[in-house]
Write a structure and sequence with these properties.
The complex is a heterodimer of chains A (273) and B (268).
Chain A (H helix, E strand, L loop, with lengths): L2 H38 L2 H5 L2 H17 L9 H19 L2 H9 L2 H6 L5 H29 L8 H29 L2 H17 L12 H9 L1 H15 L5 H22 L6
Helix pairs in contact in A: 1-7, 3-4, 4-7, 4-8, 4-11, 5-8, 7-8, 7-12, 8-9, 8-11, 8-12, 11-12
Chain B lengths: L6 E12 L2 E12 L3 E5 L6 H8 L7 E6 L2 E3 L3 H4 L3 E4 L11 H11 L4 H15 L14 H13 L5 E5 L7 H17 L3 E6 L2 H7 L2 E6 L2 E6 L1 H8 L4 H9 L9 H14 L1
Helix pairs in contact in B: 3-4, 3-5, 4-5, 5-6, 8-9
Classes of the chains: A mainly alpha (273), B alpha/beta (268).
């Protein structure tokens, strides 16, 4: 390599590195904005905790008594705890795009899009905010499990692992939600599609019963559904300690996140139209 | 107004169609550096669509835009470095404080810590919003939100400031305070301003150059004085009617009216 070539190469390398740092700093700043919003008004986080608490207390306690679902020898309430945690993370995250539509109606999205900031930073930054919201659910439900003495597996790995997986689940469903928001663009249409999707995603997953007892066609749906993978990893960590397929599941989840962020970035500028 | 300055914005035969609607229909205009250029016209004339195309938010159907010598939409990422855009809706984040709104923007445009603080304080001073920077923006009056937004748009020293109906829905006192800010900007900074308005007094009080827009077309361009003498009228209102055949209060559809009313309610 001649010295000119080296200088040119070094210049290109520095440029890429600088753009990457700028992108990272932009994403973190947008994440920070989401956190500041939560800090000014955290009520949302607590009201969101009501539903999973009801699932565990009412549905969980009752179904544990009737023993209708094969759980492989674990008490039903322990079996469903990872499922309810996953569900509550999905419910919060899938409506995350509503913030985007709200911001669009107020012109906030448009104003940000006119800034010299890479488009992907908008999606990644908001995804970071959603991950923190998801984390709050993990803490509330783990705390509840402790208080109710639900017999789940407690260890440093299971607690930290749970938090990590919950963040990944939030990342997927919130970026998926941003895709929906970019396509729908109005609150009415977005709420419609959100309502239509949440229940099927929940029931066609292994959240409250194992995939093996579903009819064949539903098993297929459940295996495509990323929620199932969130549930399976959490169940491995908190209940079964069976880590056989855990890296495959993690890989699928990470792939789904990457794909939805790429699509989300592509569609995000549509919000300005 | 400064004469013989270099060209900052140039639009050539610019069009934007939404389905069968020709929102902007083949307009051309030039804005020189340091000018305060106004697009005057009723709701639905295509002013907002024009500004959004220059703000890199929507793609033209046809025609050409150049900003500071760079072509849109191809060089949009470069152009974003020297435009500041304030949309028509109140776009500061109501759930954050004024200071936080400025801080987030300052970080996003890449100002370093020391420069950031200095720039934020400078703009807070220019806008005269010192007393309320640490209050949540949802407690601000309409005029204050507008000033905060203009400050946000100015953080990165843009060459062009794009203001879409900056005083719509504001009461007369707040409107004058926004005008004062724009006058101060013109005196202290070399920023070129493109604003849209459907208020005659605003166009007359502020603009060096005016383009009168109606049904997606520009029907006349000139200084307020030129437009009046060209039509042989004594005020801009009459000049406007002479050029378009109607006043600015007509036009606009149900949705636009509803949006403006809603915003006016938020501002009170």
């Amino acid at each position: 390599m001649s010295s000119e070539e080296f200088v040119a190469w070094q210049g290109a390398y520095n440029n890429i590195w600088r753009s990457f740092l700028r992108w990272l700093s932009n994403s973190l700043t947008l994440g920070e904005m989401e956190l500041r919003r939560i800090r000014h008004d955290p009520t949302d986080i607590f009201t969101r905790a009501v539903q999973p608490v009801l699932w565990l207390l009412v549905f969980g306690e009752t179904f544990t008594k009737i023993r209708a679902i094969p759980t492989g020898g674990v008490p039903y309430i322990a079996f469903m705890t990872p499922g309810i945690l996953s569900q509550s993370v999905m419910f919060i995250s899938i409506f995350y795009g509503l913030n985007l539509i709200w911001d669009r109606d107020q012109g906030i999205v448009q104003k940000f899009l006119a800034l010299p900031v890479p488009r992907s930073a908008f999606v990644v930054g908001r995804t970071m905010g959603a991950m923190v919201r998801g984390l709050s659910q993990a803490l509330i439900i783990l705390f509840l499990a402790l208080v109710l003495r639900i017999p789940i597996h407690w260890s440093l790995l299971s607690v930290i692992g749970t938090m990590g997986v919950v963040m990944l689940g939030s990342a997927f469903f919130s970026s998926f939600s941003m895709i929906l928001a970019s396509l729908m663009r109005t609150r009415e249409r977005f709420m419609g599609i959100g309502q239509v999707l949440t229940m099927p995603l929940f029931f066609a997953s292994s959240a409250i019963y194992p995939i093996s007892i579903m009819p064949g066609w539903l098993q297929v749906v459940a295996k495509i559904n990323p929620l199932s993978y969130v549930v399976e990893i959490l169940r491995a960590l908190l209940v079964t300690n069976d880590y056989t397929n855990i890296f495959i599941y993690l890989g699928i989840l990470l792939g789904a996140i990457a794909l939805s962020i790429v699509i989300g970035t592509k569609l995000y500028p549509r919000l300005a139209q | 107004m400064k004469e013989n300055n270099s060209l900052m914005i140039k639009a050539e035969n610019l069009s934007k169609h939404f389905g069968p609607t020709k929102a902007v229909d083949g307009i051309s205009f030039e804005i020189r550096e340091g000018e305060l250029f106004g697009l005057l016209g009723p709701n639905g004339a295509g002013k907002t669509t024009t500004v959004r195309m220059i703000a890199t938010l929507i793609l033209p159907t046809s025609g050409k835009i150049e900003v500071n010598g760079f072509t849109l939409p191809r060089q949009a990422a470069i152009v974003r470095n020297f435009i500041g855009y304030v949309p028509q809706a109140l776009s500061s984040d109501g759930s954050l404080t004024g200071y936080e709104n400025l801080l987030i923007f300052a970080k996003l445009v890449g100002l370093r810590k020391k420069e950031r603080e200095q720039r934020i304080q400078e703009l807070i001073g220019l806008m005269g919003i010192e007393d309320s920077v640490h209050k949540l923006v949802k407690e601000y009056s309409g005029g204050m939100v507008r000033k905060l937004e203009i400050a946000q748009a100015l953080l990165h020293h843009p060459k062009v400031l794009l203001l879409d109906e900056p005083t719509v829905g504001l009461d007369p006192v707040a409107r004058h305070s926004v005008w004062d800010v724009l006058e101060a900007l013109r005196k202290n900074y070399d920023v070129t301003v493109l604003l849209t308005t459907h208020y005659m007094e605003e166009a007359e009080a502020l603009c060096d150059q005016l383009a009168i827009m109606d049904h997606g077309k520009i029907v006349a361009v000139g200084t307020p004085q030129e437009l009046k003498s060209q039509t042989g009228t004594s005020n801009l209102e009459e000049a406007f009617i002479a050029l378009t055949g109607h006043g600015t209060e007509e036009g606009g559809n149900f949705y636009e009216l509803r949006r403006v009313r809603r915003m006016a309610r938020r501002l009170q």
